[in-house]
Amino acid sequence: MSEAAEIPSPARPSAPFSPSVKLAVIVAALGYLVDIYDLILFGVVRRDSLLSIGVAEADVLVVGVRLLNYQMTGMLVGGVLWGILGDKRGRLSVLFGSILMYSLANIANGFVTDVETYAWLRLIAGIGLAGELGAGITLVSEMMPADKRGIGTTIIAGVGICGALLAAGVATVVQWNYAYWLGGIMGLLLLALRVGVLESGIFQKTKESGVTRGNFFALFTNRRRALRYVCVILCGMPVWFAIGLLASLAEEIAGPTGLGLSPAPTARIALLFAYLGLAIGDFGSGWISQVLKSRKRVLFAFVGFNAVAIAAYATLGASSIHAFYACVLVLGITNGYWAVFVTVAAEQFGTNLRATATTTAPNFVRGSVVPMNLAFLALKPSLGVLGAALAVGAVVVVVAFVAIFGIEETFGKPMDFVEDEGRA
Predict the structure, then answer these.
(1) What is the pLDDT of residue 260?
(2) How confident is residue 297, by pLDDT bands cut at 50, 70 and 90?
(3) How many CB atoms lie within 10 A of CB 195?
């Protein structure tokens, strides 16, 4: 049997941004903004919140990495759960359920007084946060014409990334627990806006066809499909190396025992500059991919420039704190291919596995912070804080560059096909 089969194409909107598409893009973009706000908030308030609940200064790094690992592990679990649900029940069910879960978890997070409760709430929040991006990208990519699809997904990714800027800004003017409460409240308010969003017509057609949907293991029953899926994940890992290590641990990596800056940069400001760069890069990479009519060329270029930016971070960044933040900004721009990455994830797979793949792939990328953190901590005693970070980064960038060769060029690819679950 063939790997993929076409299904009858549903009616497409007459224009790229018909009213139903506009609403879907707006709701998905705002949802992702709140998602990123809550996702990055822990990195922004990590030190203040842990010191506030009684963690010793000397233990902040280790405890912070542990809690981040809980959050990212939750996202791995949630990515699979929400992805399967998105293909079995529909994209909208995930958009509603995921934001409700992480909003309530973040409200509760504002009341924590001990590390154990903090850790479990980050796990629950991580599960909820896992569903937002994949469901929104899948829904919009199925509603828009093939040659304009990148516009919608770029708006979602670019606007969503700005949630990190909001988190950094809010955390500078309010206490850490108020910042958590605000994120939860924003999520609950967003639920009302989602009532008018329509389900994907392509999904409805697939549902009516009786094709098996949402089988996560079907991603691995075909060698070419499995390779494609793994390569999609690997090519996105440099983004979260930059966020999860180089920006989130800026105080330790760039401080006196690392780059030697004193006073050390703060993670809050480093994340602010990193995400400002990511927002610029996301809008830029999405626009460039539309102009070039290619996803892969953009991925190759950005991953290549990313290697240069990491080298600048480790050298020029040591000259002054202003130079360091400038290097973090550039690092963010070169990692700003997330919009293209999530679009590629949606375009690689058929409708019966699309939500599963598009929701799990970004969360496996985010979850890759866990092994990266473990490798960083394991290498730190022998290589030092900076050497350990650079060793991990070198492996991640090389692997990502090679992985791009294993994915298909999908610009303009029709979305109305399904995956055959046969083996090959």
Answers:
(1) 86
(2) very high
(3) 9
Per-residue pLDDT tens digits for 356-396? 888 889 888 988 888 998 899 899 999 998 999 999 999 99
Q: Return the H-helix or E-strand segment holding 6.
A: strand 4-6
Q: Tell me how far apart the alpha carbons of residues 148 and 129 are, in angstroms, rounded to a whole number.
A: 27
Distance CA 225, CA 218 (A): 9
Q: Which residues are registered as beta bridge partners of 419? A: 4
The set of residues, in sequence order, having a beta carbon less than 8 Å from that of 17 and lying 6+ positions away, is 25, 152
Q: Which amino acid is at 11?
A: A
Dist. CA 422–CA 419, nearest whole Å: 9
Q: What CA–CA distance (Å, rounded) separates 130 from 363?
A: 6
* 1, pLDDT greater than 70: no
Contact 233, 288 (CB under 8 A): no
**From CA 25, how far away is CA 144, in angstroms rounded?**
10
Closest CA to 128 of 163, 148, 151, 101: 101
Look up residue 111 and give its two tokens. 């009341």
Which helix or strand (DSSP H or E) is residue 417 part of?
strand 417-419
Place of tokens 């990055």: 40
- Two tokens, residue 251: 């105080």
Query: Residues 6 or more apart from 195 whose CB is under 8 A from it?
Result: none
Residue 249: what residue type? L
pTM of the model: 0.82
Q: Calculate mean pLDDT across residues 216-228.
A: 88
User: What is the distance between the alpha carbons of residues 17 and 23, in angstroms, rounded to a whole number?
Assistant: 9
How would you label 12-39 residue by residue, b for 16+ Cβ within 10 Å and e otherwise? bbeebbeeebebbbebbbbbbbbbbbbb
Between CA 69 and CA 346 the distance in angstroms is: 26
**417 beta partners:** 6
How many residues belong to the chain?
A: 424
Catalogue all structural domains in the chain, each as residue range(s) with its CATH number.
14-410 (1.20.1250.20)
| Residue 8 pLDDT grade (very low, low, confident, very high; cuts 50, 70, 90) | very low
Residue 354 corresponds to which tokens in the numbers above? 């699309």
* Contact criterion met (CB below 8 Å) for 174 and 167: no
Q: What is the spatial distance between Cα 104 and Cα 121, in angstroms, rounded to a whole number? A: 10
DSSP run (H or E) holding 73: helix 60-88
